[in-house]
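About this split. The held-out portion is used to measure sequence recovery: a designer receives only the structure tokens and must propose an amino acid at every position. Recovery is the fraction of positions where the proposal matches the reference. Here is one held-out target exactly as it appears in the evaluation file.
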């Protein structure tokens, strides 16, 4: 999304910039952790760790580009941050979401240890629905018609269809599978599912607010710009890095229950040295 920006106070500008910077650092640290921690889980769950690493790598790259665009869009003049004329390219978010949101659903399917004939079709279905949700939401986001029954409302409604379908699969079709897990794993899987719901729920709320309350929340005021950027950023950190940590804990718990022992993998190498 290309936005015309308002003048910001130093505090407002710095809050957004620091949140972007924090997210780049968090995604980078999460990438290193997921790559290094993959050997702590059984081989069949390592693919889920690599998908987690891929998700935060993609997100970290796009937040680096978002940060650069934010810096270019503003310059400090007379004690206030004034737009430079360079448009802030927030469309990087949609590119990020188009790539990472389907992968988030795939992570959950991979770590559940489903039979191969179930795992592939389910991952493909959830990935397709997640991509459709993002693609259908984009035309409304960039539309100049922000009315509830206009272009934004129409595409928002269409985007909601795959979103609801994903929730149906997560809370019904996968619900029985989660209940068959051990108490520890079942709790972790339930937490991962709820985290997805909570973080993904922020995006449609942010999408709908300008339609529902156009006078109270105009899209180009300083307060709205800052609140949306900070809110999106927090949601992304939780939905990608935080969710990835949950996936790691699930993989580790299932590995331990299945008899995988990290020390047994390390000791022979140490002995040969």
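Reference sequence for scoring:
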């Amino acid at each position: 999304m290309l936005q015309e920006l308002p003048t910001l106070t130093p505090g407002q500008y710095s809050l957004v910039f620091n949140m972007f910077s924090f997210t780049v650092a968090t995604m980078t640290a999460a990438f290193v952790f997921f790559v290094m921690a993959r050997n702590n889980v059984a081989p069949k769950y390592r693919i889920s760790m690599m998908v987690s690493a891929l998700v935060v790598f993609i997100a970290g790259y796009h937040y680096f580009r978002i940060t650069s665009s934010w810096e270019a869009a503003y310059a400090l003049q007379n004690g206030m941050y004034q737009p430079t004329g360079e448009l802030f390219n927030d469309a990087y978010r949609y590119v990020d979401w188009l790539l990472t949101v389907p992968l988030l659903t795939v992570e959950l399917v991979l770590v559940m240890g489903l039979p191969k004939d179930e795992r592939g079709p389910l991952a493909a279905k959830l990935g397709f629905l997640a991509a459709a949700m993002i693609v259908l939401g984009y035309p409304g986001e960039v539309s100049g018609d922000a009315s509830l029954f206009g272009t934004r409302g129409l595409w928002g409604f269409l985007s909601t269809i795959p979103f609801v379908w994903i929730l149906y699969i997560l809370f019904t079709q996968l619900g029985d599978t989660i209940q068959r897990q051990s108490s520890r794993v079942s709790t972790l899987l339930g937490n991962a599912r709820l985290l997805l719901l909570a973080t993904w729920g922020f995006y449609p709320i942010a999408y709908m607010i300008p339609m529902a309350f156009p006078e109270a929340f105009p899209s180009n005021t300083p307060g709205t710009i800052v609140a949306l950027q900070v809110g999106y950023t927090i949601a992304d950190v939780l939905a990608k890095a935080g969710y990835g940590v949950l996936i790691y804990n699930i993989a580790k718990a299932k590995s331990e229950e299945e008899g995988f022992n990290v020390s047994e993998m390390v000791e022979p190498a140490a002995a040969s040295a």
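Annotator remark: The chain has eight helices and four strands.
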